Amino acid sequence: MSIEAIKSIIRDVPDFPKPGIVFKDITPLLADAPLFQSAVDLLSDRVRGHQPDAIAAIESRGFVFGAAVATKLSLPLQLIRKPGKLPYKTASVAYDLEYGSDRVEVHVDAIEDGKSYAVVDDLIATGGTASATAELIELEKGIVACCAFLIELTFLDGVKRLGARPIESLIRY
Ligand code: AMP
Fold first, then answer.
1. Is 61 among the residues known to form the active site?
2. 19: which of 11, 46, 57, 144 is 20 to 30 A away, CA to CA?
3. Could you tell me if residue 118 is inside a domain?
4. For residue 125, how far is its CA from the centre of ligand 1 (angstroms)?
5. Which domain holds residue 84?
């Protein structure tokens, strides 16, 4: 199954969640079993190359791909969540949005000193979420093995915010 086939099933939804944003809707991909499986296989191959000790998946569409990649590669899965969602003690990093700021959180016992983590999300836009996640992992003394995305919106140049950390993206717009 080709990357082009995966790309063509991702649906553009203009002006969601606000005017001017073209939302990349991955739900048709998830509903197509062979194509979803193929996307997970391809993403897993990219992640495997960086030999991470674990996967760190970003809420919430990142959970879908992160969990699938973790299972495929038989790796532990850790969850990076929006504020107030994780039940145990957390560490967090704040990041700027167009208006205001947001935060990513992780359980304080989730990231092990010196272990490497592949950050997985569905999409990188401005790179704010992924760079805050990478900083959080490093704050907790983990190593970022790579940041892997199904989709990269190249025109927003989000990868710049990830600095020298290795990037993998399957589909680029
Ligand atoms: P950013 O922090 O700007 O890189 O935004 C990345 C996060 O926002 C990811 O978790 C995406 O799921 C979501 N996101 C941002 N822009 C879009 C878009 N155009 N279509 C779908 N999801 C998006």
1. yes
2. 57
3. yes
4. 5
5. 51-172
